[in-house]
Amino acid sequence: MSTGRGSGEDGIGRPIRVLLADDHHLVRTGFRVILEIEDDIEVVGEAANGERAVGMARALRPDVVLMDVEMPEVDGLEATRRISLDADQPGPAVLILTTFDRDDYLFAALRAGASGFLLKNGTPEALVEAIRVVARGDGLLAPELTRRVIATFARPGGPTGAGVDPAAALRHLTPREREVLVLVAGGASNAEIATALHLGEATVKSHVSRVLAKLELRDRVQAVVFAYEQGVVRPGG
């Protein structure tokens, strides 16, 4: 399954360092086998519970933590929160991979700072690509989960709240940056945004980075949540 990609193609100039966190040894072994045949991915450690995952994330400084949800001692959601809030160092991207297709897990993972959320019924190819996506700083949700995020924010009483004063943060966006935020919330890629706004992809990437910085958001997944929470975009709008 190796793609033959070079180690620099994901923007970090070396293999992507991955920490596996799952309480089932056979599952971790399976993930390791899938990932280590890729030229641009290196598995640097394994953790059998959330407490161990937090400690190993601090010690090993991986680029991505592949995190299960239901684990003993400390679950994956709390471990994700601790990793994301670690003030001692920039935290790795956390990719949640779970058997449980539950909205409460999905939203709790996003609140905790996860950069992606996938179900274990996906393909090995999808897992490998998801790791590459979050490693280069983009957020990722399976398409069916994105639809549920949008549907949930369309309902009265859906999830609310933000890490910054939303009105003040939005006032700091330029008109162009607000356009970019709307398109990101609609699921558009950088290439699609470039086409829609008649810009170069490098310019779009810079706009996206500035939007995330001004809104104090980690990645595009959090930008989608923020935009729907604050009514910047609405389903069908």
From TrEMBL:
SUPFAM superfamilies hit by this protein: C-terminal effector domain of the bipartite response regulators, CheY-like
Domain HTH luxR-type stretches: 166-231
UniProt-listed GO biological process terms: phosphorelay signal transduction system; regulation of DNA-templated transcription
InterPro entries: CheY-like_superfamily, NreC/VraR/RcsB-like_REC, Sig_transdc_resp-reg_C-effctor, Sig_transdc_resp-reg_receiver, Tscrpt_reg_LuxR_C, WalR-like
Positions where 4-aspartylphosphate occurs in the chain: 68
PROSITE patterns documented for this protein: HTH_LUXR_1, HTH_LUXR_2, RESPONSE_REGULATORY
Residue ranges of every copy of the Response regulatory domain listed in the record: 17-135
Keywords: DNA-binding, Phosphoprotein, Transcription, Transcription regulation
Lineage: superkingdom: Bacteria
Cross-referenced Gene3D superfamilies: 3.40.50.2300
An annotated Gene Ontology molecular function: DNA binding
Protein name in the entry: DNA-binding response regulator
